[in-house]
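Query structure, 444 tokens:
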């Protein structure tokens, strides 16, 4: 439909839609020559790069299954996934060309006629391994239909345009960048600007130079941008869609962006839902601030004893090597629903702290801690306590040294006394997964 429009930009180079289609055909031919065919897994290991996009579409053209690998994992962690999913080929992106048996991203690609193996909506398209904040990661099996229906939900929820310029700085080996940024942009004929790794200064520079209209990030990314020396003078006038997810968005961060005339489009999702589940409409971003919004159009969401259950055509078929999913997917996340039908995420069921019989949700306490002007990042976990069973312990990253008592005093009147952490530890940075989630198991 738009062969001459630019589809991808990366490191100063550009690929039109026609050029991308040709690259996909040629990469598919190279992968077929390497033995890949329908149903086989084809992996990509590397940073955000056009080769990742080419490999994704090439796998689809072959009727194969795309396997994005988390480039931040250690060797043993990667070995677990490779042993579990058994890909027949691995495309190695920049910096990973030495991976054993991998095909370098810049290998010469043969001339090829278009390849298009027929697939059905219910056929497996991709296996994406979950972040694995605890235990071994599992491979969520997403069909072509799952990804397509998620894109439809996204186009209903957001005003995506054919002339959008989307900055993709979150890693494409996580579902948000792929399902919420790349695919919706390409289906409308927009341009995706790929950045190999997040860098706050570089992001602000690209927003200006490329006239970025849309981007997705986790709260930590948007917070780092405000700490950049470029922030105060950055030209952000082109930005129209600012999606934020992966964790609750702190009120102070919302206010900081509102002061620059920017409104976060917040939501809630998961790898298993490709990923959209809840979405907060732009008009409600202030009045319903702090909520994750309402269910996306083509999905059913309900609460069972506070736990979010989700079902719909965007929800995965199950985990690779496990029994198929039956019935609604139990998210493990806890939420409250107000009288207007808006959901507020209160935390993970397993993260909830029970202190003296009272439930404490870390997300609520973390949001209150982040309202302190010197607190840049915060995490709260439960630790054993002889009197109360367990109490909260806060791990904080601050802009400058500050007394623990001063931070806790800031919570007085904002939180019930039993919710205020009894212990505080200061850190240079919090342990997080590649998708920005706090790895609470490392905090004790």
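Result returned for the query:
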């Amino acid at each position: 439909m738009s062969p001459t429009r630019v589809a991808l930009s990366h490191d100063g180079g550009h690929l039109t839609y026609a050029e991308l289609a040709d690259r996909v055909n040629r990469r598919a031919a190279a992968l077929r020559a390497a033995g890949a065919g329908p149903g086989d897994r084809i992996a990509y290991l590397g940073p955000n790069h056009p080769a990742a996009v080419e490999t994704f579409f090439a796998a689809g053209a072959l009727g194969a299954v795309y396997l994005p690998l988390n480039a931040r994992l250690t060797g043993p962690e990667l070995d677990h996934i490779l042993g579990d999913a058994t890909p027949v080929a691995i495309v190695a992106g920049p910096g990973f060309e030495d991976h054993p048996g991998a095909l370098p991203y810049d290998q010469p690609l043969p001339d090829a006629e278009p390849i298009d193996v027929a697939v059905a909506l219910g056929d497996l398209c991709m296996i994406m391994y979950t972040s694995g904040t605890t235990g071994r990661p599992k491979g969520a099996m997403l069909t072509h239909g799952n990804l397509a229906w998620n894109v439809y939900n996204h186009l209903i929820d957001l005003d995506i345009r054919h002339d959008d310029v989307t900055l993709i700085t979150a890693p494409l080996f996580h579902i948000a960048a792929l399902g919420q940024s790349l695919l919706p942009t390409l289906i409308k004929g927009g341009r995706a600007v790929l950045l190999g790794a997040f860098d706050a200064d570089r992001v602000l520079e690209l927003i200006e130079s490329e006239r970025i209209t849309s981007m997705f990030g986790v709260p930590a990314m948007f917070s780092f941008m405000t700490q950049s020396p470029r922030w105060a003078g950055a030209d952000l006038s082109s930005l129209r869609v600012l999606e934020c997810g992966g964790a609750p968005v702190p009120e102070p961060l919302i206010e900081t962006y509102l002061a620059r005339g920017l409104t976060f489009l917040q939501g809630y999702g998961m790898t298993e839902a490709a990923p959209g589940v809840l979405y907060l409409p732009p008009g409600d971003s202030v009045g319903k601030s702090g909520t994750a919004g309402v269910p996306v159009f083509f999905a059913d969401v309900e609460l069972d004893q506070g736990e979010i259950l989700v079902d719909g055509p965007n929800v995965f078929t199950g985990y690779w090597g496990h029994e198929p999913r039956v019935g609604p997917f139990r998210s493990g996340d806890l939420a409250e629903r107000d009288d207007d039908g808006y959901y507020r995420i209160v935390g993970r069921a397993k993260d909830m702290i029970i202190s003296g019989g009272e439930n404490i949700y870390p997300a609520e306490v973390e949001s209150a801690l982040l309202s302190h002007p010197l607190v840049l990042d915060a995490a709260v976990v439960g630790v054993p306590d002889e009197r109360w069973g367990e109490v909260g312990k806060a791990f904080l990253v601050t802009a400058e040294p500050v007394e623990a008592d001063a931070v806790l005093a800031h919570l007085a009147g904002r939180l019930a006394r039993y919710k205020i952490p009894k212990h505080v530890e200061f850190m240079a940075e919090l342990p997080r997964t590649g998708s920005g989630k706090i790895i609470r198991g490392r905090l004790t």
